[in-house]
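go over this record:
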Amino acid sequence: MGRRNRLTYHRERIRRHALLGPAYRGGVFVTGLVVALVGIALLVLPGPGWLLIFLGLAILATEFRWARRTRHWTKGRYQQTRDRVTRRRTDPLDRRSEPGSVG
């Protein structure tokens, strides 16, 4: 049994347990929420704010479907923005970067 299969097996056993299941989900929720909130605070303070926000979403997405959907949507928006910025840098007809240009 590989490492990933062992982790999945243990996680499933915990989820099925009457007392440990809700406690595990609660712990994942609190951990992910705290990491994301620290990331939000670091948007105005020096530090890796966006990294911690995405890490908090990834932690939450291990247990919650809404967080998986949010992470998927956020990743798509990030890739679209990255592609748009990359196109602007490599587009020779883009006049916005010239000195004195408007718009």
About this structure: The chain has one domain: 3-88. The helical segments are 3-16, 20-41, 49-61, 65-90. The radius of gyration is 20 Å.
